[in-house]
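Schema walk-through. Below, the input block comes first and the output block second. Nothing else is stored per chain. Lengths vary across the set, and this one has 280 residues.
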Amino acid sequence: MTVNAITANRVQSAIALASSRTGIDFDYLLGQAKLESGLDPSARAGTSSATGLYQFIEQSWLAVVKKHGSEHGLGWAADSIGRGANGRLGVSDPGTRQAILALRNDPAAASLMAAEHAGDNKASLEGKLGRAATGTDLYMAHFLGLGGASKFLSKMQSDPDANGAALFPSAARANRNVFYDRAGSPRSLTQIYERFAAKLDGGAAGASGTLPAVGYAAQALDLDGGTVVTGAESTTDALAWADATLGRFGRPRAPAAASLMRPTPDTARLAYMMLASMGA
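--- output ---
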């Protein structure tokens, strides 16, 4: 699906804001979003729970929000996520769970969590590889998981022509176009890596919009087209603001009983955007 220019600009504004707050490269985040979703915040995978700008599956999203949500005004979400006896992350309240998962479709929340996730992977990879991690290294961690990326990159250093499909048979079965060329021949680790590098560069260069990163950051204070109201200092205030905003935009107001622990998806999203715009 091709997004319109207004949506693309708002998405890129959110990515610029995430980049400025986390230090993760704007072009990397933009290229990743282009690859994952075509800059469509509502993108959904047909074969998994992957959703949103960066195609987070449910467990990965809950994990990164649990770890980093409080740093970005999502303390209500982080505090609501717990780990069950089976080791899986979950949220006991269905309404709150829905609100947290719906944030994957919010460009600001998705971009910030993607940047934090990339930062976590960057630190781990650099510790294991003994060198600075590139954007392509980070994408390999996104694609293969941190353990898989470490294995891939270490092997590529010692044997760049190694057969990628032989090293990662499960990933190759699920992503044949990555591990094999059109003639059906297996690609080497270097070929796979360089292919991702080219796609990341092409994704950033081919994304809609002409503003530099700082220009998108200047737009990022109002991603939903409304006026950001300043002066609120807490998530409770933010939810109240979101309730008023929903009514102003002609959408149903949140129930009177809405609270910190029971936000609706709309109020949670809008409250988050207000708090993010204030640097909370």
